[in-house]
Amino acid sequence: MARIAGVNIPDNKHIEYSLAYIKGVGLPLAKKICQQANVKLGTKVSDLSDVELEKIREVIDKNYKVEGDLRMEVSQNIKRLKEISSYRGKRHERNLPVRGQRTRTNARTKRGRRVTVGSGRKKSAEKT
Predict the structure, then answer these.
(1) Nearest-angstrom CA–CA distance, 65 and 79
(2) Fold observed for domain 68-111
(3) Per-domain residue ranges for the chain?
(4) Closest by CA position to 25, among listed 7, 48, 12
């Protein structure tokens, strides 16, 4: 397995799909990286030479934020929004949708499992 940006990428896949295993690299960016490194698209990772892998590593390190650096930047941005008490920051704090989605229905991914309020079934009046 080749290791790029701290991630083991699969050998049995084409290089553009393997690069997408790195956080911050999608398919379009992976194709652009391959063009910049002069690597032919559709080449399997196992068929790449060490020189080509090194070119890919170099292109990614120089030009793009990936993995740890990207995660740190995103968390710092969220922290900054919380500190300045912006609307988006408050939504992050309360663990609610940030980008204007409705919450009356849906939003289950963000809000968690549905919790029923009350005992469920009302008890009938006791006989005396």
Answers:
(1) 19
(2) 30s ribosomal protein s13; domain 2 (4.10.910)
(3) 2-64, 68-111
(4) 7
pLDDT per residue as tens, the chain (128 positions): 888 888 899 999 999 999 999 999 999 999 999 999 999 998 999 999 999 999 999 999 999 999 989 999 999 999 999 999 999 999 999 999 999 888 888 888 888 888 888 766 666 666 66
The CATH architecture one would assign to domain 2-64 is Orthogonal Bundle (1.10)
